[in-house]
Specification:
HD_domain, binds fe (ii) ion, mainly alpha, nucleotide-binding, 194 residues, globular, 68% helix
C-alpha cells in the first residue's frame, strides 16, 4: 500500500516522549518479525506496531473527553481506569492524525491494551510485540520471548495470565475483555478444563 513510515515516525515523535517513542519503534520491529513468522500482513503490523500508543500521552480527563467525542461506549471500569481507553482512542487518532482508514490496523491498535476474543493474527502480533519488544524488562520477559518464537497462542496465553496476575496483585480493576481473551485462547489450545 506504500505507507510513508518516515513521515509517521516524525509525526509520532511530536506526540510521545522519548521513552515511548523508542518503545513504539521496538513494537514496530517485533510486530513485523512476528507477522513474518506467523503469516500476518507485515506492512499492517509495521504501521499498527509503530502507532499503537499514539494516544498514550493524554491525561485521564482528556481520554474521557476523547471517548465522548468518538462515541466510545464507556463502562464503569473504563471510567475508573481511563488509560485502558488509549487503545480504542488511538484507533480513531490514527485516522484523524495519520489518515489511516484500514480497519485491520485500527482494530489491532484498539485491542492492544485489553485483548479480545477472536483476535486476528495481526491483532495478536501487535499485542504480543507490545509485551516483549526489546526495551521491555520484567520478570519472565525472556521466557515470553522464547515462547513467542515457538507458539504464538501459548505466548499470548502467558501474556494474558501475566497481565491478570499483575492486576490482581495490585488490587486494580480487572477488565473482563482480558479475561475473555485469556479463556478463549485456553479453549483454543484445548486445555480449558485442566
Ligand atoms: Fe499501549
Ligand atoms: Fe505500548
Amino acid at each position: 500500500m506504500g505507507y510513508d513510515i518516515e513521515f509517521f515516525k516524525k509525526r509520532l515523535k511530536e506526540l510521545l516522549d522519548e521513552k515511548r517513542f523508542k518503545h513504539s519503534i521496538g513494537v514496530m520491529e517485533t510486530a513485523m518479525h512476528l507477522a513474518i513468522k506467523y503469516g500476518a500482513d507485515v506492512e499492517k503490523a509495521q504501521v499498527a506496531g509503530l502507532l499503537h500508543d499514539c494516544a498514550k500521552s493524554y491525561s485521564d480527563d482528556d481520554l474521557l473527553k476523547l471517548a465522548k467525542k468518538y462515541r466510545i461506549e464507556l463502562d464503569e471500569i473504563l471510567i475508573h481506569a481511563p488509560f485502558l481507553l488509549h487503545g480504542p482512542i488511538g484507533a480513531h487518532l490514527v485516522e484523524e492524525i495519520f489518515g489511516i482508514k484500514d480497519q485491520e490496523i485500527k482494530r489491532a491498535i484498539a485491542l492492544h491494551t485489553t485483548g479480545d476474543v477472536n483476535m486476528s493474527l495481526l491483532d495478536e502480533a501487535v499485542f504480543l510485540a507490545d509485551y516483549i519488544e526489546p526495551n521491555r524488562d520484567f520478570k519472565g520477559v525472556e521466557e515470553l520471548r522464547r515462547l513467542a518464537e515457538e507458539n504464538l497462542d501459548l505466548a499470548l496465553l502467558k501474556s494474558f495470565d501475566s497481565t491478570i496476575c499483575y492486576v490482581l496483585e495490585r488490587g486494580l480493576l480487572l477488565y473482563e475483555k482480558t479475561v475473555k481473551a485469556r479463556n478463549h485462547i485456553l479453549l483454543k489450545l484445548g486445555s480449558g478444563g485442566k
